[in-house]
């Protein structure tokens, strides 16, 4: 099998970034492939034009997700270029590594959906009764909230839960939580669905398919402080709401659907300027070409 032009090697912690970069390059017609470091197939990466290591050297803090470009797997520590997914992380990595760090943003992932502004849904008790008799879902009139996070983010949604219950008494809500099983278990230990008329709670183990379904179904996304999740929500055309008390933002958005829709359209255009796959792929190619030029000058 022919070697790829660009090989991305990443352990489990960095595979999402590697897969995104590979997909971005392939979208422009390049041959880029992703390998797990322990896989036998990773040996063919030795013959690639460039190898990108998505793992950290041991002396760099784990919050710096830098990628190392090298000519050979064994040369990862002597990388010709180092990149980070944001200006903030690039500055931090440069300070720790004592060298220039280039910025290559993460590409948008998943399906682009047209923005949708949520509206208050009228409730029809006769239709609810008929749906219940037919064994169909009866919560279509609720405003649907999606939360996704990690164990460290549980406290924020637990803290917001009483306020959401209060809001649900005037505006019935459904809160759907998509996360790793251990995070969901901890969440269910901390909150109880004790006012189902106001706020229903459901949970689902995280997976790409589960997240795609949840984004399609929801009206609003409640976010921990996570830029990647914010981008995913906006890419899916849903309003992303952060903060300890999201209730006022929900009220405002429901009362101002036109302004909400315009804001989502504007946010998607801004995302595309930096995170569209073609933009990201071209940024990678520029870095590969720059690194190759630097190497040739040094020979």
Quickly list its features.
299 residues, alpha/beta, Rossmann fold, 2 domains, 6-stranded mixed beta sheet, 5-stranded parallel beta sheet, 11 strands
Structure description:
With 299 residues, the chain is α/β, with parallel strands linked by helices. It folds into two domains: 6-107 and 276-298, Rossmann fold (3-Layer(aba) Sandwich), CATH 3.40.50; 125-274, Rossmann fold (3-Layer(aba) Sandwich). 43% of the residues lie in helices and 16% in strands. It is built from ten helices and eleven strands. It has helices spanning 15-27, 87-97, 125-133, 154-170, 181-190, 208-217, 227-235, 247-255, 257-275, 277-298, and strands at 6-9, 32-35, 50-53, 67-70, 81-84, 102-103, 143-149, 173-179, 199-205, 220-222, 239-241. The chain has a six-stranded mixed beta sheet. Strands 9-8-7-10-11 form a five-stranded parallel beta sheet. Strand 10, helix 7 and strand 11 (239-241) form a beta-alpha-beta unit. Helix 1 (15-27) crosses helix 10. The longest helix has 22 residues, at 277-298. The protein starts with 5 loop residues before the first strand and ends with a helix. Residues 57-76 have low confidence and may be disordered.
Summarize the SSE layout with pairings.
Layout: E1 6-9, H1 15-27, E2 32-35, E3 50-53, E4 67-70, E5 81-84, H2 87-97, E6 102-103, H3 125-133, E7 143-149, H4 154-170, E8 173-179, H5 181-190, E9 199-205, H6 208-217, E10 220-222, H7 227-235, E11 239-241, H8 247-255, H9 257-275, H10 277-298
Parallel strand pairs: 1-2, 1-3, 5-6, 7-8, 7-10, 8-9, 10-11
Antiparallel strand pairs: 3-4, 4-5
Helix pairs in contact: 1-10, 9-10
């Amino acid at each position: 099998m022919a070697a790829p032009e660009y090989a991305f090697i990443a352990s489990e912690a960095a595979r999402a970034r590697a897969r995104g970069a590979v997909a971005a390059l392939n979208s422009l017609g390049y041959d880029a492939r992703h390998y797990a470091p322990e896989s036998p197939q990773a040996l063919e990466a030795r013959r690639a034009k460039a190898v990108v290591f998505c793992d950290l050297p041991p002396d760099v803090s784990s919050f710096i997700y830098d990628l190392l470009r090298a000519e050979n797997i064994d040369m990862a520590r002597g990388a010709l270029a180092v990149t980070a997914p944001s200006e903030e992380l690039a500055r931090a990595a440069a300070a720790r590594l004592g060298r220039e760090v280039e910025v290559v943003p993460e590409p948008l992932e998943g399906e682009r959906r047209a923005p949708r502004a949520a509206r208050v849904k009228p409730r029809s008790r006769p239709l609810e009764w008929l749906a219940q008799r037919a064994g169909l879902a009866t919560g279509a009139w609720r405003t649907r909230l999606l939360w996704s996070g990690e164990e460290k983010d549980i406290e924020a949604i637990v803290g917001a839960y009483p306020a959401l219950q209060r809001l649900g008494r005037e505006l019935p809500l459904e809160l759907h939580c998509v996360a790793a099983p251990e995070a969901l278990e901890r969440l269910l230990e901390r909150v109880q669905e004790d006012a189902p008329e106001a706020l229903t709670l459901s949970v689902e183990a995280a997976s790409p398919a589960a997240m795609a379904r949840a984004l399609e179904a929801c009206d609003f996304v409640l976010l921990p402080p996570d830029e990647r999740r914010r981008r995913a929500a906006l890419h899916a055309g849903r309003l992303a709401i952060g903060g300890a008390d999201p209730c006022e933002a929900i009220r405002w958005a429901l009362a101002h659907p036109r302004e909400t829709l315009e804001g989502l359209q504007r946010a998607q255009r801004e995302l595309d300027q930096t995170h569209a796959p073609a933009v990201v792929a071209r940024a990678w190619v520029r870095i590969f070409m720059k690194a190759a030029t630097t190497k040739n000058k040094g020979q």
